[in-house]
Amino acid sequence: MTNSPASAGNTDVAGRRRRTPRSVLAALLGGILPLLASLFLLTPPPAAAATLTEVTGFGNNPSNLRMHLYVPNNVAARPAVLVAVHYCTGSGPAFYSGTEFASLADRYGFIVIYPSATRSGNCFDVSSPQALRHDGGSDPVGIVSMVRYVQQRNNADPSRVYVTGASSGAMMTNVLLDDYPDVFKAGAAFAGVPFGCFATTDGSGWNSACANGTIIKTPQQWGDLARGAYPGYTGARPRMQLWHGTEDATLRYPNFGEAIKQWTNVLGVSQTPASTDRPQTNWTRTRYGATGDRAPVEAISVQGTGHSLPLAGMAARAITFFGLDTP
Protein backbone atom coordinates (compact mmCIF):
# COMPACT_ATOMS: atom_id res chain seq x y z
CA MET A 1 0.00 0.00 0.00
CA THR A 2 1.40 3.39 -0.95
CA ASN A 3 1.43 6.42 1.29
CA SER A 4 -1.06 9.13 0.55
CA PRO A 5 0.38 12.51 -0.46
CA ALA A 6 -0.49 13.88 2.96
CA SER A 7 1.31 11.19 4.89
CA ALA A 8 4.22 11.03 2.47
CA GLY A 9 4.99 14.68 3.10
CA ASN A 10 5.70 13.93 6.78
CA THR A 11 8.00 10.89 6.24
CA ASP A 12 11.65 10.94 5.10
CA VAL A 13 13.30 8.36 2.84
CA ALA A 14 14.38 6.21 5.79
CA GLY A 15 10.79 6.00 6.96
CA ARG A 16 11.32 8.35 9.95
CA ARG A 17 8.56 10.78 10.65
CA ARG A 18 9.60 14.42 10.15
CA ARG A 19 8.84 17.00 12.90
CA THR A 20 6.65 19.81 11.69
CA PRO A 21 7.16 23.38 13.09
CA ARG A 22 4.03 22.90 15.15
CA SER A 23 5.30 19.69 16.74
CA VAL A 24 8.70 21.25 17.48
CA LEU A 25 6.99 24.19 19.23
CA ALA A 26 4.83 21.82 21.24
CA ALA A 27 7.90 19.89 22.34
CA LEU A 28 9.72 23.07 23.39
CA LEU A 29 6.76 24.35 25.36
CA GLY A 30 6.33 20.98 26.95
CA GLY A 31 9.84 21.23 28.34
CA ILE A 32 9.92 24.93 29.19
CA LEU A 33 6.55 25.38 30.88
CA PRO A 34 7.20 22.86 33.67
CA LEU A 35 10.60 24.49 34.25
CA LEU A 36 9.04 27.96 34.54
CA ALA A 37 6.37 26.62 36.85
CA SER A 38 8.99 25.11 39.11
CA LEU A 39 10.88 28.41 39.22
CA PHE A 40 7.75 30.29 40.30
CA LEU A 41 7.16 27.72 43.02
CA LEU A 42 10.74 28.01 44.28
CA THR A 43 10.83 31.84 44.23
CA PRO A 44 8.92 33.35 47.18
CA PRO A 45 6.65 36.30 46.48
CA PRO A 46 8.10 39.73 47.35
CA ALA A 47 7.63 40.73 50.97
CA ALA A 48 4.84 43.18 51.68
CA ALA A 49 6.05 46.67 52.55
CA ALA A 50 6.22 47.52 56.22
CA THR A 51 3.40 49.75 57.43
CA LEU A 52 2.93 52.48 60.00
CA THR A 53 1.11 51.09 63.04
CA GLU A 54 -0.58 52.93 65.90
CA VAL A 55 0.37 51.79 69.41
CA THR A 56 -1.80 52.42 72.46
CA GLY A 57 -1.18 51.77 76.14
CA PHE A 58 2.55 52.42 75.81
CA GLY A 59 3.01 53.85 79.32
CA ASN A 60 2.84 57.12 81.24
CA ASN A 61 1.31 59.68 78.87
CA PRO A 62 0.13 62.76 80.81
CA SER A 63 -0.80 64.82 77.73
CA ASN A 64 -2.53 62.04 75.75
CA LEU A 65 -0.12 61.93 72.83
CA ARG A 66 -0.68 59.37 70.11
CA MET A 67 2.09 57.01 69.01
CA HIS A 68 2.74 55.57 65.56
CA LEU A 69 5.53 53.09 64.99
CA TYR A 70 7.45 52.11 61.85
CA VAL A 71 9.41 48.86 62.03
CA PRO A 72 11.06 48.04 58.68
CA ASN A 73 11.03 44.50 57.32
CA ASN A 74 14.81 44.29 57.61
CA VAL A 75 14.92 45.61 61.17
CA ALA A 76 18.24 44.95 62.87
CA ALA A 77 18.48 42.34 65.61
CA ARG A 78 19.32 45.09 68.11
CA PRO A 79 17.89 48.14 66.37
CA ALA A 80 18.54 51.81 66.96
CA VAL A 81 15.51 54.04 67.58
CA LEU A 82 14.74 57.40 65.98
CA VAL A 83 11.97 59.64 67.32
CA ALA A 84 10.68 61.87 64.50
CA VAL A 85 8.60 64.79 65.78
CA HIS A 86 6.18 66.74 63.56
CA TYR A 87 5.52 70.47 63.10
CA CYS A 88 2.49 72.45 64.34
CA THR A 89 -0.76 71.43 62.57
CA GLY A 90 0.91 68.14 61.65
CA SER A 91 0.70 64.56 62.89
CA GLY A 92 2.86 61.50 63.18
CA PRO A 93 1.38 59.92 60.03
CA ALA A 94 1.85 63.19 58.10
CA PHE A 95 5.50 63.38 59.15
CA TYR A 96 5.91 59.72 58.19
CA SER A 97 4.57 60.28 54.67
CA GLY A 98 6.14 63.71 54.16
CA THR A 99 9.74 62.97 55.14
CA GLU A 100 12.43 60.47 54.17
CA PHE A 101 13.05 58.90 57.57
CA ALA A 102 10.98 55.76 56.91
CA SER A 103 12.75 55.01 53.63
CA LEU A 104 16.08 55.49 55.41
CA ALA A 105 14.87 53.06 58.09
CA ASP A 106 14.15 50.56 55.30
CA ARG A 107 17.74 50.97 54.12
CA TYR A 108 19.50 50.83 57.48
CA GLY A 109 17.22 48.76 59.73
CA PHE A 110 16.39 51.19 62.54
CA ILE A 111 12.94 51.81 64.07
CA VAL A 112 11.09 55.15 63.84
CA ILE A 113 8.63 56.45 66.44
CA TYR A 114 6.25 59.18 65.22
CA PRO A 115 4.49 60.96 68.13
CA SER A 116 1.36 63.03 67.47
CA ALA A 117 0.36 66.07 69.50
CA THR A 118 -3.36 66.20 70.28
CA ARG A 119 -3.89 69.69 71.71
CA SER A 120 -5.38 72.55 69.70
CA GLY A 121 -3.10 73.40 66.77
CA ASN A 122 -1.22 70.10 67.15
CA CYS A 123 1.87 71.84 68.54
CA PHE A 124 4.08 70.16 71.12
CA ASP A 125 4.51 71.62 74.58
CA VAL A 126 7.94 73.25 74.64
CA SER A 127 6.83 76.17 76.83
CA SER A 128 5.42 75.03 80.17
CA PRO A 129 7.51 74.60 83.33
CA GLN A 130 6.47 70.93 83.36
CA ALA A 131 7.83 70.31 79.87
CA LEU A 132 11.15 72.00 80.58
CA ARG A 133 12.42 69.73 83.32
CA HIS A 134 13.32 66.09 83.69
CA ASP A 135 10.25 63.97 84.51
CA GLY A 136 8.25 67.17 84.97
CA GLY A 137 5.26 66.01 82.98
CA SER A 138 3.55 66.91 79.71
CA ASP A 139 4.73 65.80 76.25
CA PRO A 140 8.36 64.86 76.99
CA VAL A 141 7.24 62.23 79.51
CA GLY A 142 4.89 60.64 76.96
CA ILE A 143 7.56 60.56 74.26
CA VAL A 144 10.09 58.92 76.57
CA SER A 145 7.42 56.34 77.46
CA MET A 146 7.22 55.54 73.74
CA VAL A 147 10.98 55.02 73.61
CA ARG A 148 10.96 52.72 76.62
CA TYR A 149 8.06 50.74 75.16
CA VAL A 150 10.06 50.09 71.98
CA GLN A 151 13.15 49.15 73.96
CA GLN A 152 11.14 46.53 75.83
CA ARG A 153 9.00 45.20 72.97
CA ASN A 154 11.38 45.44 70.02
CA ASN A 155 14.73 44.61 71.64
CA ALA A 156 15.96 48.12 70.81
CA ASP A 157 19.44 49.28 71.77
CA PRO A 158 19.21 51.82 74.63
CA SER A 159 22.63 53.21 73.68
CA ARG A 160 21.38 54.22 70.20
CA VAL A 161 18.32 56.45 70.65
CA TYR A 162 18.03 59.65 68.59
CA VAL A 163 15.49 62.40 67.98
CA THR A 164 14.76 64.75 65.12
CA GLY A 165 11.98 67.18 64.32
CA ALA A 166 10.81 70.19 62.33
CA SER A 167 9.60 73.52 63.75
CA SER A 168 7.61 72.56 66.87
CA GLY A 169 9.28 69.17 66.55
CA ALA A 170 12.68 70.84 66.34
CA MET A 171 11.95 72.71 69.55
CA MET A 172 10.89 69.41 71.12
CA THR A 173 14.17 67.90 69.92
CA ASN A 174 16.02 70.52 71.98
CA VAL A 175 13.74 69.89 74.97
CA LEU A 176 14.16 66.11 74.91
CA LEU A 177 17.95 66.30 74.67
CA ASP A 178 18.15 68.52 77.75
CA ASP A 179 15.35 66.91 79.78
CA TYR A 180 16.66 63.40 79.04
CA PRO A 181 20.39 63.46 78.22
CA ASP A 182 20.50 59.95 79.70
CA VAL A 183 18.08 58.67 77.03
CA PHE A 184 19.06 60.41 73.77
CA LYS A 185 22.50 60.22 72.18
CA ALA A 186 22.06 62.92 69.53
CA GLY A 187 19.47 65.15 67.89
CA ALA A 188 18.83 66.98 64.62
CA ALA A 189 16.65 70.10 64.81
CA PHE A 190 15.21 71.54 61.59
CA ALA A 191 14.22 75.20 62.11
CA GLY A 192 13.89 75.31 65.88
CA VAL A 193 14.98 77.51 68.80
CA PRO A 194 17.30 76.98 71.79
CA PHE A 195 16.07 75.04 74.80
CA GLY A 196 14.10 77.33 77.12
CA CYS A 197 13.72 80.12 74.57
CA PHE A 198 9.99 79.41 74.15
CA ALA A 199 9.30 79.19 77.88
CA THR A 200 6.13 80.85 79.20
CA THR A 201 4.54 81.05 82.62
CA ASP A 202 1.03 82.22 81.69
CA GLY A 203 -0.18 78.99 80.11
CA SER A 204 0.43 80.22 76.58
CA GLY A 205 2.18 77.91 74.12
CA TRP A 206 3.57 80.75 72.01
CA ASN A 207 6.49 83.07 72.77
CA SER A 208 6.62 85.92 70.24
CA ALA A 209 9.93 87.33 71.46
CA CYS A 210 11.62 83.98 70.91
CA ALA A 211 9.90 83.35 67.57
CA ASN A 212 11.05 86.76 66.35
CA GLY A 213 14.64 86.08 67.32
CA THR A 214 14.88 88.85 69.90
CA ILE A 215 15.91 86.73 72.92
CA ILE A 216 19.69 86.99 73.06
CA LYS A 217 21.82 85.41 75.79
CA THR A 218 25.47 84.61 76.38
CA PRO A 219 26.64 81.04 75.73
CA GLN A 220 26.96 80.52 79.49
CA GLN A 221 23.41 81.73 80.13
CA TRP A 222 22.02 79.43 77.43
CA GLY A 223 24.10 76.54 78.71
CA ASP A 224 22.97 77.07 82.31
CA LEU A 225 19.35 77.11 81.14
CA ALA A 226 19.82 73.77 79.37
CA ARG A 227 21.67 72.16 82.27
CA GLY A 228 18.94 73.34 84.63
CA ALA A 229 16.48 70.95 82.97
CA TYR A 230 18.05 68.02 84.83
CA PRO A 231 19.76 69.32 87.97
CA GLY A 232 22.52 67.09 89.24
CA TYR A 233 23.01 65.19 86.00
CA THR A 234 26.74 64.69 85.36
CA GLY A 235 26.77 62.12 82.54
CA ALA A 236 27.52 62.48 78.85
CA ARG A 237 25.55 65.03 76.84
CA PRO A 238 24.01 64.30 73.43
CA ARG A 239 25.45 65.74 70.23
CA MET A 240 23.37 68.21 68.21
CA GLN A 241 22.86 69.00 64.52
CA LEU A 242 21.12 72.32 63.79
CA TRP A 243 19.47 73.41 60.51
CA HIS A 244 17.92 76.80 59.69
CA GLY A 245 16.85 78.75 56.61
CA THR A 246 18.12 82.31 56.38
CA GLU A 247 14.68 83.57 55.27
CA ASP A 248 12.66 81.85 58.00
CA ALA A 249 9.83 84.21 58.90
CA THR A 250 8.21 81.94 61.52
CA LEU A 251 11.11 81.13 63.84
CA ARG A 252 13.54 83.74 62.70
CA TYR A 253 17.15 83.13 61.76
CA PRO A 254 18.83 84.68 64.86
CA ASN A 255 17.60 81.60 66.78
CA PHE A 256 20.11 79.55 64.78
CA GLY A 257 23.06 81.49 66.18
CA GLU A 258 21.64 81.38 69.69
CA ALA A 259 21.24 77.61 69.47
CA ILE A 260 24.86 77.27 68.37
CA LYS A 261 25.89 79.28 71.44
CA GLN A 262 23.84 76.98 73.67
CA TRP A 263 25.03 73.66 72.31
CA THR A 264 28.70 74.56 72.09
CA ASN A 265 28.50 75.61 75.75
CA VAL A 266 26.57 72.51 76.83
CA LEU A 267 29.11 70.27 75.11
CA GLY A 268 32.10 72.28 76.26
CA VAL A 269 33.56 73.05 72.82
CA SER A 270 34.80 76.25 71.21
CA GLN A 271 32.37 78.56 69.43
CA THR A 272 35.00 78.91 66.71
CA PRO A 273 34.25 76.36 63.98
CA ALA A 274 36.68 73.49 63.59
CA SER A 275 35.70 73.38 59.91
CA THR A 276 33.49 75.22 57.44
CA ASP A 277 32.33 73.89 54.05
CA ARG A 278 29.49 73.86 51.53
CA PRO A 279 27.99 70.39 51.00
CA GLN A 280 25.52 71.99 48.56
CA THR A 281 25.50 75.32 46.78
CA ASN A 282 23.25 77.12 49.26
CA TRP A 283 24.35 75.25 52.41
CA THR A 284 27.03 76.52 54.77
CA ARG A 285 28.05 73.87 57.26
CA THR A 286 30.10 74.61 60.37
CA ARG A 287 31.35 71.96 62.76
CA TYR A 288 32.37 72.59 66.34
CA GLY A 289 34.66 70.51 68.54
CA ALA A 290 35.73 68.19 65.68
CA THR A 291 35.73 68.06 61.89
CA GLY A 292 34.15 64.69 61.07
CA ASP A 293 30.59 63.52 60.43
CA ARG A 294 30.00 63.02 64.16
CA ALA A 295 31.26 66.33 65.51
CA PRO A 296 29.77 67.41 68.86
CA VAL A 297 27.85 70.23 67.14
CA GLU A 298 27.09 70.57 63.44
CA ALA A 299 25.19 73.58 62.08
CA ILE A 300 23.87 73.99 58.54
CA SER A 301 22.64 77.39 57.34
CA VAL A 302 20.45 77.15 54.23
CA GLN A 303 20.67 80.32 52.16
CA GLY A 304 17.43 81.75 50.76
CA THR A 305 15.17 79.15 52.39
CA GLY A 306 12.21 79.83 54.67
CA HIS A 307 10.38 77.75 57.25
CA SER A 308 10.22 74.63 55.08
CA LEU A 309 12.83 72.22 56.41
CA PRO A 310 13.71 69.41 56.02
CA LEU A 311 14.04 69.43 52.25
CA ALA A 312 15.09 66.48 50.07
CA GLY A 313 18.42 64.98 51.10
CA MET A 314 18.54 66.61 54.53
CA ALA A 315 17.18 63.61 56.42
CA ALA A 316 20.03 61.49 55.05
CA ARG A 317 22.52 64.03 56.43
CA ALA A 318 20.90 63.70 59.84
CA ILE A 319 21.17 59.91 59.65
CA THR A 320 24.87 60.25 58.83
CA PHE A 321 25.35 62.61 61.79
CA PHE A 322 23.71 60.03 64.06
CA GLY A 323 25.87 57.25 62.61
CA LEU A 324 22.83 55.20 61.61
CA ASP A 325 24.14 54.63 58.07
CA THR A 326 27.01 52.50 59.33
CA PRO A 327 26.90 49.16 61.19
Main sheet strand line-up: 1-2-4-3-5-6-7-10-9-8
Biggest beta sheet summary: 10 strands, mixed
Average pLDDT confidence is 89
What is the percentage of strand-forming residues? 15-25%
Unreliable segments of 5+ consecutive residues:
1-44
- How many angstroms does the end-to-end distance come to? 83 Å
Helix amount:
25-40%
**Large-scale geometry:** globular
Helical segment count: 10
Order of H and E elements: HHEEEHHEHEHEHHEHEEEH
Give the strand tally.
Answer: 10
- Calculate Rg over CA atoms: 29 Å
Overall structural class, as computed from helix and strand content, comes to alpha/beta
Describe what you observe in this structure.
It is a single chain. With 327 residues, this protein is α/β, with parallel strands linked by helices. It contains ten helices and ten strands. A ten-stranded mixed beta sheet has the order 1-2-4-3-5-6-7-10-9-8, with helices on both faces. Helix 8 packs across helix 9 (254-266). The chain is globular. The termini are far apart. The model is unreliable at 1-44 (pLDDT under 50).
In short:
This protein is an alpha/beta fold and 327 residues long. It is 32% helix and 16% strand. It contains ten helices and ten strands.
List the topology elements.
Layout: H1 5-8, H2 21-42, E1 52-55, E2 66-70, E3 81-85, H3 92-98, H4 101-108, E4 111-116, H5 138-153, E5 161-166, H6 168-179, E6 186-190, H7 208-211, H8 219-227, E7 239-245, H9 254-266, E8 275-277, E9 283-288, E10 297-302, H10 314-322
Parallel strand pairs: 3-4, 3-5, 5-6, 6-7, 7-10
Antiparallel strand pairs: 1-2, 2-4, 8-9, 9-10
